[in-house]
Specification:
The relative contact order is 0.10. The longest helix is centred in the middle third of the chain and has 14 residues. Helices cover 34% and strands 27% of the residues. It is elongated, with a radius of gyration of 21 Å. The chain contains nine helices and eleven strands. It folds into two domains: 117 residues, Rossmann fold (3-Layer(aba) Sandwich); 80 residues, Alpha-Beta Plaits. It is an alpha/beta fold. The model has no long low-confidence stretch (mean pLDDT 87). Strands 3-2-1-4-5-6 form a six-stranded parallel beta sheet, sandwiched between helices. The protein has a five-stranded antiparallel beta sheet with strand order 7-8-11-9-10, with helices on one face.
Length: 219
Amino acid sequence: MKKGLEQVAVIGLGRFGMQVIRQLEKYDCEVLAIDEDEALVEEAVPYVTKAMQVNALDQDVLLATGIQDFDTVIIGIGENLESSLMIALTLKDIGIPRIIAKAKDEKHVKLLEMIGVNQIVQPEIDSANKLVSSLTTKYIKDKLALGKDHSLLEITAPKAWVSKSFGELALRQKYSFNVVCVKRGEEVVFPTASTEVLESDTLMIMASDKNLESLSKLY
């Protein structure tokens, strides 16, 4: 392992797992890919630090991969409920700091929560929610969930804010919005109280989900 790099292992190289490793390749991560299927392991090789054909249900075999040294393990097995849960239990038992698992339905979600999985994803539901959100909130250019209750949003500047300074707008006091930065073309501006909002500005803000309704009323 290279010290200082984020270390991520992905167990299960189906469509979800493959997409994860392809995305991780863009970042400075140490990535271990694991699957029982030799063909899938070979397909993963160009994208990861190491790819291994392993039965992840066998704890001794799993430990032999060095997975216990990883910061994060992503379980990409969603359809086989028993395998997903057994692997999650094994990872908890060996002390993995952060476990992320794919779930196929609400029952699966609840069982993973009971085990103590840190983050659970339902790709189909998440994709559908993101699509609907983009259709119904067109002022939001991009949205990244931060935990269960907060999001980082990339929004177009509301007309009511244009030509006003952030000091005048007092967004934190009025709306509990935290402006992270302002994008002006290729330039990124970190605003002060005297910075004025321009019509072409794109704002990066952090907000609680319960306050998004108040944001929508500004458009």
